[in-house]
């Protein structure tokens, strides 16, 4: 796994409101550029590959809108599969028990970075 751009920087911390819009980015995963996103939930940042477990489609119905109306679950716009924001596990619907692909993040100095084991991933 690896990267995106800007030396691992996904966005400024202030970009991610709790239960609000997410930050979309592109990263390299197993030699391919894939869409990904980060959201804030109950104060903590989480990131996932932006690909529904039901079909290989991006989740957001409009760019950056990943949460349901209550701000409790991530929801796929296409057929309504729901995922827990803090684990990516399927919370119901067409994901049929399959999770999102989680990514590591690090929040430091008011910025959010793509990271693994506490190390920022270099982004090409
Ligand atoms: S593509 Fe996401 S629920 Fe069908």
Outline the structure in words:
With 124 residues, the protein is mostly beta strands. It has no helices and eleven strands. It has one domain: Rieske [2Fe-2S] iron-sulphur domain (Rieske Iron-sulfur Protein), CATH 2.102.10.10. Helices cover 0% and strands 39% of the residues. The strands form three sheets. Strands 1, 9, 10 and 11 form a four-stranded antiparallel beta sheet that branches. The mean pLDDT is 91. The structure holds FE2/S2 (inorganic) cluster (FES).
Describe the structure using short key phrases:
124 residues, mainly beta, Rieske Iron-sulfur Protein, four-stranded antiparallel sheet, globular, binds FE2/S2 (inorganic) cluster
Task: Outline the fold blueprint.
Layout: E1 9-12, E2 23-29, E3 32-41, E4 44-49, E5 74-75, E6 82-83, E7 90-92, E8 102-103, E9 105-108, E10 111-116, E11 119-120
Antiparallel strand pairs: 1-10, 2-3, 3-4, 4-8, 5-6, 6-7, 9-10, 10-11
The structure holds FE2/S2 (inorganic) cluster (FES).
Topology-level CATH name: Rieske Iron-sulfur Protein
Helix content: under 10%
* Beta-strand share of residues: 35-45%
Q: Could you tell me the radius of gyration in angstroms? A: 13 Å
What's the total helix number?
0
Q: What can be said about the biggest beta sheet?
A: 4 strands, antiparallel
**Stretches with pLDDT under 50, minimum 5 residues:** none
Structural class estimated from helices and strands: mainly beta
How do the helices and strands follow one another from N- to C-terminus? Answer: EEEEEEEEEEE
Could you say which overall geometry the principal axes of the C-alpha atoms support? globular
Tell me the distance between the termini: 13 Å
What is the CATH architecture assignment? Answer: 3-layer Sandwich
Query: Which ligands accompany this protein?
Result: FE2/S2 (inorganic) cluster
What's the total count of β strands? 11
CATH class: Mainly Beta
The CATH homologous superfamily name equals: Rieske [2Fe-2S] iron-sulphur domain
Average pLDDT works out at 91
| Number of self-contained structural domains | 1
């Amino acid at each position: 796994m690896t990267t995106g751009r800007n030396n691992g920087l996904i966005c400024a911390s202030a970009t991610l409101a709790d239960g609000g819009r997410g930050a979309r980015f592109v990263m390299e995963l197993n030699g391919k550029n894939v869409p990904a996103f980060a959201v804030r939930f109950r104060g903590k940042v989480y990131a996932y590959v932006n690909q529904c477990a039901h079909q290989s489609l991006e989740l957001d119905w409009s760019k950056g809108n990943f949460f349901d109306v209550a701000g409790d679950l991530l929801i796929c716009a296409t057929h309504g599969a729901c995922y827990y924001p803090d684990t990516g596990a399927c919370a119901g619907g067409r994901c049929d028990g399959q999770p999102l692909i989680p990514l590591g993040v690090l929040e430091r100095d008011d910025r959010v970075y793509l990271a693994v084991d506490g190390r920022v991933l270099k982004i090409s």
